[in-house]
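Inverse folding, one chain.
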């Protein structure tokens, strides 16, 4: 039954709020680069040269690539060098991250702080998801760089809410904080859809994979769909770990992952501690 209902919910997300929310288009340069990266005949030099054609994107790609998260031994100074050092799999999520942040909050000073918090959280979730994926033994989980993209985009629907209807979404969050009600239910009541549905809609509109869209739309219902979409369990765990890191909840961190989580994903508590320690060390260095 689940295998039938999962695609249906993703299609529903694609249609939801179509009349009320403006979904930004993926920048054309990012679309071209994604096509090049998927082209087996394209090389890293060609892709690096394409990045270099857009000065703003090039600057953002180099800043991200030289950040602590990607662990380069020496700084990269041009996009061609970055492409050759990082490789295509690692370059793809960097290009997506560099290209998507600029889509939201233009000319809206009052919501830039909320969007900055959103991006810092999303980048942290992306880093944690990727690092957990490197230890994961479950063969059905996405590859680490795909997990980075999942983490980066998992809450993209919130960015759309902040960008389209900031006052309404602020009220939505005030209700959630005051009542402790389920955030998805409150968002649906107030905004007409929840952020997971809108995030899936963005992913599909941008021509990214259906697997990514389905992971995003169910990331708050991970165990309900774990058998059909196992990556949701890892993204949900990365999301909770990021919340604990941001809150500085050192005592609660060991309990964020259950034995069930670790067994299903195929890593040990020691791996979890290693990833969380790295996330704690890097949290203050995340820039947006």
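Residues assigned per position:
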């Amino acid at each position: 039954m689940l295998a039938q209902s999962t695609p249906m919910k993703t299609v529903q997300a694609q249609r939801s709020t179509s009349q009320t929310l403006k979904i930004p288009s993926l920048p054309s340069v990012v679309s071209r680069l994604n096509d090049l990266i998927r082209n087996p005949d394209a090389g890293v030099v060609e892709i690096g040269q394409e990045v270099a054609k857009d000065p703003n994107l090039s600057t953002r790609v180099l800043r991200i690539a030289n950040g602590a998260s990607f662990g380069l031994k020496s700084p990269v100074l041009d996009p061609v060098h970055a492409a050759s050092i990082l490789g295509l799999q690692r370059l793809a999520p960097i290009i997506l991250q560099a290209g998507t942040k600029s889509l939201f909050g233009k000319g809206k000073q009052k919501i830039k702080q909320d969007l900055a918090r959103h991006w810092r959280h999303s980048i942290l979730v992306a880093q944690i998801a990727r690092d957990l994926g490197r230890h994961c033994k479950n063969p059905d989980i996405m590859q680490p760089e795909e997990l980075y993209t999942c983490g980066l985009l998992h809450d993209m629907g919130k960015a759309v809410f902040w960008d389209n209807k900031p006052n309404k979404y602020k009220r939505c969050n005030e209700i959630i904080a005051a009542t402790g009600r389920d955030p998805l239910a409150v968002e649906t009541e107030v905004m007409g859809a929840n952020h997971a549905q809108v995030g899936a809609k963005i992913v599909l509109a941008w021509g990214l994979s259906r697997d990514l869209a389905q992971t995003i739309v169910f990331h708050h219902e991970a165990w309900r769909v774990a058998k059909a979409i196992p990556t949701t369990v890892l993204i949900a765990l990365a999301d909770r770990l990021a919340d604990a890191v941001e809150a500085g909840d050192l005592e609660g961190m060991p309990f964020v992952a259950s034995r069930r989580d670790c067994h299903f994903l195929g890593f040990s508590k020691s791996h979890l501690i290693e990833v969380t320690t790295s996330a704690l060390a890097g949290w203050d260095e995340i820039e947006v």
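The CA atoms of residues 155 and 231 lie 15 Å apart. The chain has 16 helices and no strands.
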